[in-house]
Amino acid sequence: MLDLIKTSFGCEERDVRSYSPLTLAYIGDGVYDLVIRTLVVERANRPPNELHKLTSAYVKAEMQAKIIVALKDELTEEEAQVFKRGRNAKPYTTAKNATRADYHKATGFEAVMGYLYLTGQNQRMLELIRHGLELMEDGTAHE
């Protein structure tokens, strides 16, 4: 999809490593949200308010923080560096319904998702999301 978007809109090639961690988190938030929305819709045709509730449970900062903590040993060195940059970034907004620590971890998680998306590593991104969700659903994730 990324290549199609770039081609359709005449986007220039950019070095993703030059993007700020908050920029990576911004796009990562949207990509992760799209993956989760797709999963929720594919699993059941429900009224929009139910779809929203199901989606919200997975995209909130607390859940993203739990997922990235559960996956930390599976991250490549490069992914771990992106996570740390995202986690340590000074966000311009504050957490609404999350602890400050969870919000920072979630920002790091979103930065990893954005990095993987923008570098065309969609299979890896989906693998991490799938495994993270599996760990959350079967309760084997530990902080």
Blueprint of the fold:
Blueprint: H1 2-9, H2 21-43, H3 48-59, H4 61-71, H5 77-88, H6 100-118, H7 122-138
Using only CA atoms, what is the Rg?
A: 15 Å
Question: How can the largest sheet be summarized?
Answer: none
List the total number of helices.
7
Report the uncertain regions: none
What structural category arises from helix and sheet content? mainly alpha
Mean pLDDT, all residues: 93
Could you estimate the helical fraction of the residues in percent?
over 70%
Query: Number of DSSP strands?
Result: 0
The portion of residues forming beta strands comes to: under 5%
Shape: globular
Helix/strand order, N-terminal first: HHHHHHH
Separation, N- and C-terminal Cα atoms: 34 Å
Describe this structure in words.
By secondary structure, this protein is mostly helical. The chain contains seven helices and no strands. It is globular and about 40 Å long. The mean pLDDT is 93.
Task: Please supply descriptive tags for the structure shown above.
143 residues, mainly alpha, 7 helices, 71% helix, 0% strand, globular
What's the short version?
The chain is mainly alpha-helical and 143 residues long.
